[in-house]
Amino acid sequence: MDxxxxxxxxxxxxxxxxxxxxxxEKLGQAEKTELDAHFxxxxxxxxxxxxxxxxxxxxxxxxxxxxxIDHTGARIEEFLYEKLDRKAPSRNTNAELLGHYMQDxxxxxxxxxxxxxxxxxxxxxxxxxxxxxxxxLQTSAxxxxxxxxxxxxxxxxxxxxxxxxxxxxxxxxxxxKTRLKKAKAAEAxxxxxxxxxxxxxxxxxxxxxxxxxxxxxxEKAEHELRVAQTEFDRQAEVTRLLLEGISSTHVNHLRCLxxxxxxxxxxxxxxxxxxxxxxxxxxxxxxxxxxxSTHPAAPASEGSPLETDTLKIEEVQAPATGxxxxxxxxxxxxxxxxxxxxxxxxxxxxxxxPGMDSDWLIGERGxxxxxxxxxxxxxxx
Length: 381
Known about the structure:
Strand content: 5-15%
Order of helices and strands: HHHHHHHEEEEE
Structural class: alpha+beta
Mean pLDDT: 80
CATH superfamily of the largest domain: Arfaptin homology (AH) domain/BAR domain
Number of helices: 7
Number of domains: 2
CATH class of the largest domain: Mainly Alpha
Shape: rod-shaped
């Protein structure tokens, strides 16, 4: 118990001494030991690294998990599983959930209908996109987020702890310097011999005793200063080595950044592939927007414009009824002379001819005529 009281009292004394030194420095009443310029630059660089690493880490989390509510819930779940030393189960992404809903809706509407079959295909594509997204999230978390978090929660905490210890030792060192300076000044005053005519002989004894006491105080202050200087120099070297390690941190984060870019590029490449495959699949499905002929299909007779594989556009005539207006959704470049090039947002007249592929219509614009893809059009009533 006595030991604990002494330890607490000693700690309180040290804290008070540091507080006094800090206050006097702020008021300009005490000298402060300045670190060399290189050391100061290292600390500035470390602070800058911590600041921007934290910002990049937080914003990357937002990018990978944009919904704040989902993000908070995911972090809490990960924290609980981490404390239980268990692996968190993989969660479906929003795209995967959308894909499941679309496919369930397709089963309700009927997978044989145009809408149902399209929902089924789009739903499957969304599930593939969601799976690619989940792989991207996992890869990014391991290769990019984890190293940044390890720096903030590991290396930076160690650096901050050692810097705080260095600052405390600097306050102790400057406090010892101030104490030594005051002791020497008092010793000099006590060493001044009093005037024999104006001072009693008894004062000589008191003066000699005070001089001896101040000499002892000076020796004690010098010893404490040497000890404080040694501890400060040792801690400064430890802190310097940690700060110089920031260069290695930059190299490590650079490697992680390259891995993040590779993961992101692979993810977008997969998304592009799946979307192009989806477009191909949709072009093969029956399209409810396609116009059906108002006349029953008849076998091509001799001399019919569909007699050969290549449609003879110049011989095709618009029917008396069954033509409609259509708005062009996207630009389209004709692949050959039988097709009509399109410009987005323009209006054209369209119709079908017997025996024509359901994915195509005949489009007319002024005196120009040719085949146009149905998927590029919005049919107007």
